[in-house]
Amino acid sequence: MRPIPRSSRFANGGVSFWFRDMGLPERRPSLPGAADYDVCVVGAGYTGLWTAYYLKKAQPDLRVAIIEREFAGFGASGRNGGWLSAEFSGSRERYAESHGKSSMIALQRAMMETVNEVVAVADAEGVDADVVRGGMRLVATNAAQQERLTAEIEYLQEWGYWPDDIHLLAHDHEPRLSVAGAVASAYSPHAARVNPAKLVTGLARAVADLGVDLFEDTAVEEIRPRRGAARPAVVTGHGTVTADHVVCATEGFTSPLRGQRRDWIPMRSSMIVTEPIPAELWEKIGWEGREVLGDAAHSYVYAQRTADDRIAIGGRGVPHRPGPDQDGSTQPQEIAGLWRALTRMFPDVADVPVEHAWSGMLGVSRDWCPSVHMDADSGLGWAGGYAGSGVAAANLAGRTLRDLVLGRRTELTRLPWVGHKVRGWDPEPLRWAGTRVVHGLYRTADRRESKTEDKGHTSRLAGIATRIARR
Ligand SMILES: Cc1cc2nc3c(=O)[nH]c(=O)nc-3n(C[C@H](O)[C@H](O)[C@H](O)COP(=O)(O)OP(=O)(O)OC[C@H]3O[C@@H](n4cnc5c(N)ncnc54)[C@H](O)[C@@H]3O)c2cc1C
Fold first, then answer.
1. CA–centroid distance, residue 268 to ligand 1 (Å)
2. What residues does ligand 1 touch, defined as CB less than 6 Å away?
3. How far apart are the CA of 359 and the centre of ligand 1, in A?
4. CATH assignment of 6-11+133-194+266-362?
5. What is the pLDDT of residue 54?
């Protein structure tokens, strides 16, 4: 492999390129001491912020606090690929099993409306997050991927996507997006490109302006359920906050929290971004529509053309034991893998230096299904497990948590991910071994499919991996 060109400004970590570009925010004050609220939210990512936003909008006199260990957007919400899309990661069959197929279709339609909702609220609140409603483009670069992409579209059209919502594109489709070796592509209008850090920072400002007390630099050590007359409580080194309801919105960071169920394990996703790409290369590539772009590989990638004409691309990296996620740095083999994917898709970009690499934690449940919960007895609520598709889903979860906290029975609280029961993860080291095996099998399947060793069909290895992962 030729050496990866690195920018003189190259950085690895530093939370994310998005934050480095706009500057890390000045931290808000930490919790001054013991306090009492109607609702206390733990974690200031999209889930926590949207929950607080909609609660305060619905009931302005509600006393709402958010307790954040670092600063708003420090987690996945300030590091992601900026796909605001209607993609939903859970198994449709599992939700349909408990609630019926029409209920799952309602959830998918709600995800589509959520893309509009986020764009509309960002607009109304004056949040400039470089939003472009360009839709989503998926490309297949070999026969097996083409077969899978076609089957996926047929499948989605049975589960709430109508033909206008996702379809295959003609080869000469305009606006052009030239991906090397593409043999098929599909399009959905239900997506927008965003700058994730601008979105989360603007949302935090809007939430604070509404009168929510947002405390940063305050680590929550334990979340206690209601016990008899003792109200639910959030324990920090700065004092304990009691509240009628506590919402845990820490997704990929949840497992170390005392008193939290271990429904979600942390998985890492990594990204790289190039320097701005010269205009003459953009003329070759096209991508005037600024669609968010993905592929149909098993170890898939997600990409966007940024507001300042770079390419940011990410993917599930090599699994390694997640340690404390301080600065979001990523490993050399992940950078190399992403650069290979980038230059396979866009060979002309091979001389454009990579300027930044970073990673973040997302939360994955054992059945890969996201869920939203509010337990009336304990007073505790939580949402997450979005498995890498959380930018829009966190907004839908936030609106749903609003209704659950306020005791409203609405069409949102009837959606099948509300109260979805999640089986616990296997103990270590089984879980670790399983993750590595699945990762290896998917990688090998992709390699075999690209060489058509599997005669243009999805590799059997991928089927084995999916069964092990129980997705
Ligand atoms: C690299 C990457 C790329 C991704 N790309 C996309 C994409 O393009 N599209 C998409 O839909 N999804 C994507 N995702 C997933 C998406 O970003 C997440 O699902 C979503 O941001 C989750 O939001 P959240 O608020 O639930 O969690 P987070 O944003 O992780 O927020 C949790 C917050 O809790 C705080 N916290 C943790 N522990 C404590 C504690 N003990 N006390 C107080 N505070 C605490 C953290 O500091 C953090 O701010 C990506 C994720 C990653 C990592």
1. 11
2. 42-48, 67-70, 74-77, 79-83, 219-220, 249-253, 257, 269, 271, 302, 314, 359-362, 384, 386, 388-392, 394
3. 11
4. 3.30.9.10
5. 98
Matching residue, tokens 């991906």: 179
Of 24, 80, 131, 247, best ligand 1 pocket probe by most atoms within 8 Å of the beta carbon: 80
- The pLDDT score that the predictor gives to residue 470 is 65
pLDDT of residue 322: 53
Q: Are 272 and 335 in contact (CB under 8 A)?
A: yes
Please tell me the predicted confidence (pLDDT) of residue 426: 72
**Sole residue written with tokens 């770079």:** 310
Ligand 1 center to 358 CA (angstroms): 14
Cβ neighbours, 10 Å, residue 469? 18
- How far is 416 from 135, CA to CA, in rounded Å? 26
CATH code of the domain made up of 15-117+196-265+366-405: 3.50.50.60
212, 147, 142: which is closest to 181 by C-alpha? 142
Domain residue limits, the chain:
6-11+133-194+266-362, 15-117+196-265+366-405, 428-471
Ligand 1 geometric centre to CA of 390 (Å) = 8
How far, in Å, CA of 28 to CA of 43, rounded? 14
pLDDT given for residue 452 in this prediction: 67
Output DSSP code: residue 383: E
Q: Supply the pLDDT for residue 317.
A: 60
Average pLDDT for consecutive 10-residue bins of the chain (471 residues)? 91 96 97 98 98 98 98 98 95 94 97 98 98 97 93 95 94 88 95 98 98 98 95 97 97 80 80 98 97 90 97 79 71 93 96 97 89 96 94 98 98 97 74 74 78 72 71 65
Report which protein residue has its CA nearest ligand 1's atom 9.
83
- Ligand 1 atom closest to residue 269's alpha carbon, by position in its atom list: 1
The predicted pLDDT at position 129 comes to 98
Q: Whose CA is nearest to atom 39 of ligand 1?
A: 69
pLDDT in the model for residue 55: 98
- Residue 274 has a pLDDT of 98
What is the rounded distance in angstroms from the CA atom of residue 111 to the CA atom of residue 48?
18
CB 458 within 8 A of CB 147: yes
Whether the ω angle into residue 429 lies within 30 degrees of 0, i.e. cis, is yes
